[in-house]
Write a structure and sequence with these properties.
This protein is mainly alpha-helical. It is built from seven helices and no strands. Helix 1 (7-40) runs parallel beside helix 3 (78-113), helix 2 runs antiparallel to helix 3 (78-113) and helix 4 (125-144) packs antiparallel against helix 5 (147-177). Keywords: Cytoplasm, Phosphate transport, Transport. Belongs to the PhoU family.
């Protein structure tokens, strides 16, 4: 990032960056607590998730207002403007990730408050760990301005998509073979879908990091082209995904 003689401008930029990272830390915790609530039946964790969601929403509003003030008071250079616009877009993905974590917690409560019978056996903790890692790496890439790490998150989303499709097939099989599992299987599909969406949001944020650092819009370009642009390669513009 470029350096400015205006100390207030630099302080404002750092405040936006720092608060966004705090917001991301809250969402990471929400994902873990929601999955722990599902696994253990500890419904106090559901309340923790809900309280954190309020904090996430507060951060979103405050950061959005800060960005608006910076744009109104200062004349950011192209690079700093790119950072501000990227964070503005990333805010939406981060807030929605928090929403998805809250959905997981809400369904966990519903499952454990009902009779614990006819629950299909499916392992979602690995998928949850993957999306939490993706979110953490997206935040790390943002903090370090690391487009290579951001591209790795984009690639990781393919694995999460595979896990989502596998979980869906597994749960549909349960419902066909034992209709008594339908209600709980639908709940588990809801949770798996929420996790998959968190992965999508982490991918979106990582694409914004690459744009912020490299000035390259890698949305809809495929994983290999994303990795190439993150490295700064300029050859093989027309390379195709396998």
């Amino acid at each position: 990032m470029s350096e400015h003689t205006n100390k207030q401008f630099d302080a404002d930029l750092e405040s936006v960056r720092s608060q966004f990272l705090q917001m991301g830390g809250l969402v990471e915790a929400m994902i873990q607590e929601a999955i722990d609530a599902l696994a253990s039946g500890d419904l106090s964790l559901v309340e923790k998730v809900r309280e954190r969601e309020k904090e996430v929403n507060r951060h979103e509003v405050e950061i959005d207002e800060s960005i608006s003030r910076i744009l109104a008071r200062h004349q950011p250079t192209a690079i700093d403007l790119r950072m501000l616009m990227a964070v503005s877009k990333m805010l939406t993905d981060m807030e929605r990730s928090g929403d998805e974590a809250e959905k997981v917690a809400t369904v966990a409560r519903r499952i454990h408050e009902a009779e614990l019978r006819h629950i299909p056996v499916i392992e979602l903790r690995h998928m949850a760990a993957n999306v939490r890692t993706m979110l953490h790496q997206a935040l790390d890439a943002f903090a370090r301005l690391d487009p290579i790490l951001a591209a790795a998150v984009v690639r990781s989303d393919k694995e999460v998509d595979k896990e989502w499709k596998g979980a869906l097939r597994h749960l549909i099989t349960y419902m066909i073979e034992d209709p008594r599992t339908i209600s709980r299987a639908i709940d588990m599909i809801f949770i798996a879908r929420a996790l998959e969406r968190i992965g999508d949001h982490a991918k979106n944020m990582s694409e914004r990091v690459i744009y912020m650092v490299k000035g390259a819009d890698v949305r809809h370009t495929g994983v290999k082209n994303t990795e190439r642009l993150a490295r700064g390669d300029v050859d093989d513009e027309d390379s195709q995904e396998p």
